[in-house]
Specification:
252 residues; alpha+beta; seven-stranded antiparallel β-sheet; five-stranded antiparallel β-sheet; disordered C terminus
Length: 252
């Protein structure tokens, strides 16, 4: 009877330890693809069409696909600026349609990292532009599987210069994009959607360009798992208790 009770207790603790394993894993949820290495192609996201009239506000919307329920908490993207300038603020929006539909979350980001990546000439346009990597924080946004749109607009700088969202190096077969000053769709821009995805044991995101598990040029880890601290504590406690029971049984 005592032996059966020990077995039952062991199984219970082991079950608790397994249950404590995280149901979500930190990862890049969507990656549009790497940035170009030579050519510069980018689309304006600043409040006026500079230097071409009629000075209309510019926005760019890019789609991203989530393969399962996820909690979105940030995004990485790359911008081009006048040399010596910096991105001071940018308005963002996640919605169900390009620059519209149902708005699921929105905000104005002002605390931007402005990580300097270098300078690059823009063939045919003229100026040498500065490349900066940016990150914006998104309040935890719960989304189900589906297609959503990230819109960037109203970007401002201390020097009141233009801000361009860099285009990805390849045309994504899984994502779309639109710009305010273009009548038809444009190639996707370079960006990553970050957060935690629902985890299913034995199943993972499919790789490939434009897919949730694809690699990319922004340097964020793809597919890396980070358990919640409370889950790790519970998991460790359960395993330690199980080890103690095993030692007692050996002594007995």
């Amino acid at each position: 009877m005592r032996k059966a009770a020990v077995h039952a207790t062991s199984l219970l603790i082991l079950g608790c330890a397994i249950a404590a394993a995280p149901a979500f894993a930190d990862r890049v949820l969507y990656n549009s693809g790497p940035p170009p290495t030579v050519d510069v192609t980018a689309w304006g996201i600043f409040p006026y069409d500079y230097p071409i009239p009629p000075n209309e506000p510019l926005w760019v919307s890019d789609s991203f696909t989530l393969g399962r329920a996820s909690e979105v908490d940030g995004a990485n993207f790359i911008v081009f600026l006048d040399p010596g300038d910096a991105l001071a603020s940018v308005d963002w929006e996640i919605s169900t349609a390009p620059d519209g539909g149902t708005i699921l979350a929105s905000g104005a980001m002002t605390n931007l990292p402005n990580t300097y990546l270098g300078l690059r000439d823009w063939p045919g346009f003229g100026p040498t532009l500065q490349i900066d990597a940016e990150h914006l924080s998104i309040p935890d946004l719960q989304l189900g599987p589906g297609v959503f749109w990230l819109t960037l607009e109203n970007a401002t700088t201390p020097l009141q210069g233009p801000v361009w969202w860099e285009q990805a190096s390849v045309w994504s077969p899984t994502g779309g994009a639109y710009a305010s000053n273009e009548a038809s769709s444009i190639p996707q821009e370079t960006f990553q959607i970050l957060g935690t995805a629902e985890h299913r044991r034995g199943h993972g995101f499919g790789g490939g360009e434009g897919s949730p598990d694809s690699g990319g040029g922004l340097g964020a880890p793809v597919g890396a798992s980070t358990p919640e601290p409370s889950g790790l504590i519970l998991l460790g406690t359960g395993l330690a208790a199980l080890a103690g029971i095993i030692r007692l049984r050996r002594r007995g």
